[in-house]
Each structure stands twice: as structure tokens, then as C-alpha cells.
UniProtKB/TrEMBL annotation:
UniProt name for this protein: Protein DETOXIFICATION
NCBIfam families in the cross-refs: matE
Pfam family of the protein (one): MatE
Organism: Macleaya cordata (Five-seeded plume-poppy)
GO process terms (BP): xenobiotic detoxification by transmembrane export across the plasma membrane
Length: 481
């Protein structure tokens, strides 16, 4: 009897070790798939974001007014426009990702062309926000000097608006097929060119804001042209078969999904824009805007890592749901969140360790450096929360939950976050720290709600919905396993 009991115990231990070994192997395989997308996506996001980052760094040494003007354009006007354009292009993340999972490559080029039509029309509609940036900013109670200078700069960067219209659909087309390394190389080479252009036009030739705008326009269109050449050069024989009139069919349904994506992302990005506007209403707005803009730029730079995982998890979830593998989609979520949290901890520690030093990268004004340093703890907390949040958004896009997340954003950000920030900043007189505290409340609440939603998700049902979506947009769906 003792021998039998011992055998049962050892067999149980062996099975436990075997299951742990299987879990480790499975996690390793998923991590490799995740990093295959996230790694180059992170480098691409950092490189493209750094175009604006470099611009701010060069302009910051011209003066406080110039820095504030460019920061307001980037965070308010371009932040608004970027959110709309990215959102309108993000419908491809759901459709292309699930189509790839189902093996329906023939529709990818058509989807991208439909998205180009939609984002191109959207860009035309958004031009007035650039042309009338100055009165818009004044209407939003920004200072007269900042608004007028920002208005001139915004007109000069209109070509970048149409670059966004072409760029985002191409990115989703490439990401859905895990073909991102060429896009990464293009972005990194362009970033080097952008630094040289700013050095020549802004520093050496002294063209100021105009030179910075020209450098940005050239850099963005270099990215676009290189990506288009890659797509049409025969590397995608199944996914790209040339331009087709089919791109003009089913536009209504495509617009609906694009609008849902745009609303979700815009509510997210406009939240940070609203924070800049609240800060602009404080005393000494130039100093306050400079300080929070520097922190926002660093936060967004750190956010690029999480955005890489956002892209990766969106592709993995959409591919697995499209292929009819709900359990694999759920496991991808766990691996992505765990990895992104680890990087969030590292970035948070880095900010806390260097909070008295990083302001020097952007400004030589002691008062701006002092105010920026005060926000170090708030910046660190925000970076940690944002190591989780974008990954959850990626899951939402991969599964097609854009509308539901938009509702969550409204409640967390605009019902709680902004009012709390306004009360703490103005009524309680905590200034920038109070406004940022309100932002943190909204971000934390949203993250908790999304985690709860995903823990309660029926992934089998999501796979069935993906099957219906694929069938509606053309093609057969695989069996769900």
C-alpha cells in the first residue's frame, strides 16, 4: 500500500513538473512571437515619435515662447488630429489581423485602399484646425503670444497631416502580417536625417520655427515614400495586387468601424490635450506649459515601449481569434501584460533616479527645470500605469471592442479625471500637481475597469464574433478550437 501511495505521489509530482515545463515552453514560444512584432514596433514608434521629440529639443533652446508654441501645437492641434487619423486608420488592426488569422490575404490590399480613401477625406476635413489654430487656441484661453506663434507654425506643418493619412493604413497593413522590420529601418534612417535637417535649418541657418516645420515635413514624407515603394515592389503577391475599384465598395461599413476606432483613440489622446489646456489657464502659463510639456514628451517616449506591445497584442489577439483559437488569444494577453509591466517598472525607476537631471535635455532655464523636476513623481506614476493600459487597448482593438472602450474612456477620463484635476488644480490651488493628480485618477480607474472586463471575457464567444466578421467582409472562416 505504501508503495502504491508513493507511486501515486511521484506520478503527481512528475505531472506537475511536466505541466510547469509545458507552461514555460508555451510562454517562451508566445514571447518570441510577441517580441517578433513588439521589438520592431517599439523601434518604429520611438523613431517616429522622436521626430517631434527632436523638434522640441531644438526649439527649446530658442526660447520659452517658441518652446511653448510648438508644444501647444504638438499637444493640442496635432494631438487632436493625430488621434483622429490614427483612429480612422486603426480599423485595419481588427479587420486585417483577423483576416490574416483566417488566411484571407487577398482582402488586405483592398482594406488598405479603403482606409486610404477614408483617411484622405478625413485629412481634408481637418485642415481648418491647422489654418485657424491661433483663434482656436485663444478660444481655449491660451495666452495671446503663444497662440499667435503657434498659429503660424501649425500652418507650416499641414503637409504632415496628409502624411498621417497615408502612414497609418500602411502600418496596420504591415503589422497585421508581422512584416515590420523594413518599416523600422525606414523610420530609424529618417530620424537620423531629421536630426541633421534640424541642425542645419534651425541651428546653423537660423530659420527658427519655419526651419523646424520644413524638417518635419521632409522627414515624414520620406517615411511615406519609402513604405509605399516597399508595399508595391512585389513583396506581398497575395496581399497587394494593385489598385482596385473594390476599394470603393462597402465603404459605409468600413467608415462605421473606423469611426468607432477613432472615437476610442481620440478620447484617449484628447484627455492629455485637455490636461495641457487646463495647465495653460494657470498663472505663468509659459512656465507651466513648458514644464508639463517636457514631462509629457518623456512620458510619450516611454509609452512607445508599451505601444509596441499594443501593436503586438493587437496582432496576436486578432490573428488567433481570426484563426479560431480563443485560448491562444487569452494566453497572449497574459504574456503581453506581464512583459509590459516589467518594462514599466524599469522606466519608473529611471525617472525617479533622474528627476533632477532630465529637464536639462529640453531647457536651460532654471525656473523651468525646477518646475519640471517637481513633477517627477507624478511622471513616474503615470509611466507605470501606462505600461499596462496600452496593452489592454491593443486587446480591445484586436477583438473589435472599440465602441465599448470608448464608453469606458468617457466615464473614467471626462466624468472623473478632468473634473478632479480641475478642482485640485484651481479650487484647491495645487496647480500643475493637482491637474496631473486628476489625470492619474482617470488613468488608474480606466486600467482597473479594463482588467476586470478582460478577466470576465468569454473568449470562445469572441472567436465566434471574429468568424462572423470575417464572413461579412468576405472569405471563409476556420473551425474554432
Amino acid at each position: 500500500m505504501a508503495g502504491i501511495n508513493g507511486f501515486v505521489i511521484w506520478r503527481g509530482i512528475f505531472k506537475l513538473r511536466q505541466s510547469r515545463g509545458d507552461l514555460v515552453d508555451k510562454s517562451w514560444d508566445e514571447s518570441k512571437k510577441m517580441w517578433g512584432i513588439a521589438g520592431p514596433a517599439i523601434l518604429t514608434a520611438v523613431s517616429q515619435f522622436s521626430i517631434g521629440f527632436v523638434t522640441v529639443a531644438f526649439i527649446g533652446h530658442l526660447g520659452d515662447l517658441e518652446l511653448a508654441a510648438v508644444s501647444v501645437v504638438q499637444n493640442v492641434i496635432e494631438g487632436f488630429v493625430y488621434g483622429v487619423m490614427l483612429g480612422m486608420g486603426s480599423a485595419l488592426e481588427t479587420l486585417c489581423g483577423q483576416a490574416v488569422g483566417a488566411g484571407q490575404f487577398n482582402m488586405l490590399g483592398i482594406y488598405m485602399q479603403r482606409s486610404w480613401i477614408i483617411t484622405g477625406v478625413t485629412a481634408l476635413i481637418l485642415i481648418p484646425f491647422y489654418i485657424f489654430a491661433s483663434p482656436i487656441l485663444k478660444l481655449l484661453h491660451q495666452s495671446k503670444d503663444i497662440s499667435e506663434l503657434a498659429g503660424r507654425y501649425s500652418i507650416w506643418v499641414i503637409p504632415q497631416l496628409f502624411a498621417y493619412a497615408v502612414n497609418f493604413p500602411i502600418q496596420k497593413f504591415l503589422q497585421s502580417q508581422s512584416r515590420v522590420w523594413v518599416m523600422t529601418i525606414i523610420s530609424m534612417v529618417t530620424l537620423v536625417i531629421h536630426v541633421l535637417l534640424n541642425w542645419v535649418l534651425v541651428t546653423k541657418l537660423g530659420y527658427g520655427l519655419g526651419g523646424a516645420a520644413i524638417a518635419g515635413n521632409i522627414s515624414w514624407w520620406l517615411i511615406i515614400l519609402a513604405q509605399i515603394i516597399y508595399v508595391v515592389s512585389g513583396y506581398f503577391p497575395d496581399a497587394w495586387t494593385g489598385f482596385s475599384v473594390l476599394a470603393f465598395q462597402n465603404l459605409y461599413g468600413f467608415v462605421k468601424l473606423s469611426l468607432a476606432s477613432a472615437i476610442m483613440l481620440c478620447l484617449e489622446l484628447w484627455y492629455f490635450t485637455a490636461i495641457i489646456l487646463l495647465v495653460g489657464g494657470l498663472k505663468n502659463p509659459e512656465i507651466a506649459v513648458d514644464a508639463i510639456s517636457i514631462c509629457m514628451n518623456l512620458q510619450l517616449w516611454a509609452l512607445m515601449v508599451a505601444i509596441g506591445f499594443n501593436a503586438a497584442i493587437s496582432v496576436r489577439v486578432s490573428n488567433e481569434l481570426g484563426a479560431g483559437h480563443p485560448k491562444a488569444a487569452k494566453f497572449s494577453l497574459v504574456v503581453a501584460v506581464s512583459t509590459s509591466i516589467l518594462f514599466g517598472i524599469l522606466f519608473t525607476a529611471a525617472i525617479l533616479a533622474s528627476r533632477d537631471q532630465f529637464p536639462k535635455l529640453f531647457t536651460s532655464k532654471p525656473i523651468v527645470m525646477k518646475e519640471t523636476s517637481k513633477l517627477g513623481y507624478f511622471l513616474a506614476a503615470t509611466i507605470f500605469i501606462n505600461s499596462i493600459q496600452p496593452v489592454l487597448h491593443g486587446v480591445a482593438v484586436g477583438a473589435g471592442w472599440q465602441f465599448q472602450v470608448a464608453l469606458i474612456n468617457i466615464v473614467c477620463y471626462y466624468v472623473f479625471g478632468l473634473p478632479v484635476g480641475a478642482i485640485l488644480g484651481y479650487k484647491v490651488k495645487l496647480g500643475v500637481e493637482g491637474i496631473w493628480s486628476g489625470m492619474l485618477v482617470g488613468c488608474l480607474l480606466q486600467t482597473v475597469i479594463l482588467l476586470v472586463v478582460m478577466l470576465r471575457t468569454n473568449w470562445q464567444k469572441e472567436a465566434l464574433q471574429a468568424e462572423d466578421r470575417i464572413r461579412a467582409w468576405g472569405g471563409e472562416s476556420p473551425q474554432i478550437t
